[in-house]
Amino acid sequence: MRKIILITLTLLFSGAISLQAQSIFGEWKTIDDETGNEKSIVEVYQENGKAYAVIKQLLKKGNENKVCENCKGTNKNKSIKGMVIINGLSKDGSEWNGAKILDPKTGKEYKCYITLEDNNKLKVRGYIGFALIGRTQYWTRVN
């Protein structure tokens, strides 16, 4: 009987870990699509059924306290660390969309969608107008 309980608990625990790993939520390392350099650690989290992303850490030495000089409105000259860059994506099948992403480098906002390519790779697409005109970054899960 003990063996059955132990096996059941092990399966439930490993199933919970597997489900978490198949989620967009968690910490991700962003990679600059132009240079290939690691830029930041971003946490994607859920609040009231929507997905958000906040910059937890800037990885380039000397940029740790950088502010968003090119941002407009309330983000103008605010610290990039701690800034919410994706604000309120909704789940649509296997894709999360319907919100904007902020590029702190330029201060511009773009429509975006994100999809989980595999357990450790997140596709982040920012675009203007149609999804065909834009940029894609692939973020890797931080373990």
Automatic annotation (TrEMBL):
Pfam families: DUF2147 (PF09917)
Protein known as: DUF2147 domain-containing protein
Domain DUF2147: 26-141
Leader peptide range in chain numbering: 1-21
Record carries keyword Signal: yes
Tagged with keyword Cell membrane: no
Key words, A-Z: Signal
Domain of life of the organism encoding this protein: Bacteria
